[in-house]
Amino acid sequence: MSEMVSAFSESSSDSSTDVAGSPAAVPAVLARVRETYDSGRTRPLAWRRQQLEGLVRLFHEREQELADALAADLGKNPLESYVTELSLVRAEAEHALKHLEKWARSRRVPVPLGLQPASARTEPRPLGVVLIIGPWNYPVQLVLAPLVGALAAGNAAVLKPSELAPATSAVLADLLPRYVDPEAVAVVEGGQEASTALLKERFDSIFFTGGERVGRIVLQAAAEHLTPVTLELGGKSPAVVLDGNWAAVARRLVFGKLLNAGQTCVAPDYVLVTEAAAPALKKQLVKAVAEQFGKDPSRSKDLGRIVNEQHWERLVGLLDSGTVLAGGRSDRGSLYLEPTILTDVAPDSPVMQEEIFGPILPIIEVRDLAEAMKFINSRPVPLAAYLYSNSAADRKTFEEGVRAGSINHNASTVQLAVPGLPFGGAGASGTGAYHGKFSFDTFSQLRPVFTKGTLLDTLRFAYPPYTGLKKRLLRRLL
């Protein structure tokens, strides 16, 4: 999410505070959480279940407070907040509860004949104390969904919500200690100073959702302690349109693009459409926007607002990158930007240089699928790539020829609701993945355990000196 989601780049007015009082208190917060982890308290499955059940209760009992915070920070409709944030995290926690025992089970591994008698197994073990740095665009989901995996795997955690969503940050800091173990999960609020203080500390894993620039800062800080890092970044996710039911294609593009006012890391960033299909698609896109948000979207309760004035100014500055087919109106006071469709967009125009992260959809015409794929592959690897086509052959060609964090056919953004699918990027769009069991695996070490008795020393044939007989035996056995 190119510089759109950052724990560092911008600070709120209360950037020097955290739940313990100041960045200077971060070492004490971390020491408390590590002491809890070191005590062994987080390892038993019973404790893990209690934490996951607490998160499920949180979403049942505090939905209104969470929705109110999201409305205050981003102007989100309560139902959109439920669909895209609250219900998703609750489903993650419920899924983890259902499968926890199976995920945490050790598994036997065959032992070669030359090492018999012996046994071998793998067992998932927690990493330790993990740091989760969240973004502002989905400030509940993208903090608590990783936490589900961390707790299911038996870790303790320190959470850093974004200061650019202050109401949500505050409500998480207030509510979480009531529903999960407050000695094992800490929330640190604040801006750049708090983030910097956290990254000076040693963690056992860091999970960061944000932009490429800040991702580099996190990696550099983690390198000081050789801390493993999961990076969930973003990029310009393309949508290629070849054919289909034009009304349905347009509705799905508009829905995926305009969730959270376009401030979604997997939103279709731009459209590549064939010259033959362009007229029909453009007509239906204009119609789909009106269907979903009315003739005057500023009056719609279903369209969110831009997070702050800086991002609003940046987005308004991109409107000159092409011809406005529809939209283009804005209001600084309410941080409103009308859903805007741009045509006649040059590949080197400002709107095509970085992730838009707002309700602007550029359309670029191409000759065919081959040209579209060449265009995509000439740019950094996106977090998601979308193809709209009824042709199975074209879909297969797209899958084999495009590198992206995920490949999606005839739908936009909704792939995030499938708990069995990993969510993560590739190349510039991130490293590592989570959701469902992939979250559990991300926060676990798959530790090997090998056991052999000493009553009979069957390894003697492998000890020096290496005689002719031993050579023959070892070569046969190995």
UniProtKB/TrEMBL annotation:
Domain Aldehyde dehydrogenase: 21-447
PROSITE patterns recorded: ALDEHYDE_DEHYDR_CYS, ALDEHYDE_DEHYDR_GLU
Active site: residue positions: 232
UniProt cross-references to Gene3D superfamilies, sorted A to Z: Aldehyde Dehydrogenase, Chain A, domain 1, Aldehyde Dehydrogenase, Chain A, domain 2
Superkingdom to which the source organism belongs: Bacteria
Keywords attached to this entry: Oxidoreductase
Keyword Oxidoreductase among UniProt keywords: yes
Chain segments carrying region Disordered: 1-21
Similarity comment: family membership: Belongs to the aldehyde dehydrogenase family.
Protein's UniProt name: Aldehyde dehydrogenase
